[in-house]
Amino acid sequence: xxxxxxxxxxxxxxxxxxxxxxxxxxxxxxxxxxxxxxxxxxxxxxxxxxxxxxxxxxxxxxxxxxxxxxxxxxxxxxxxxxxxxxxxxxxxxxxxxxxxxxxxxxxxxxxxxxxxxxxxxxxxxxxxxxxxxxxxxxxxxxxxx
Length: 145
Fold this sequence. Notes:
1 helix, mainly alpha, about 90% helix
């Protein structure tokens, strides 16, 4: 605390005035500092609000990205299941068609084999008949002499 010297009629005016000027100067400094701090607090609150809004936006974006990723995974799984089902269906169809073709080829082979047997029998019969004719010719030539 400041102590003032005494004069006639009270405290020393110049000391008191000097002290009052210092108090006024310090008070004005404190007021300016308070105003500046109030403005800084307001600016920081606005910045905080902006960052909170940004945080909310980012959280929403992350949630939407996660949902989109989950949807993409789900759709990929569904598509892969459809592709697998189509492949199994096509494989079954191809196998069935192949079995039918194999069966037809087997039937044709059996028919050809049967036709060959018939052809061989007929050829053998014709050859036997021709041999009989050849033998008759030989017998005829012998009788004519």
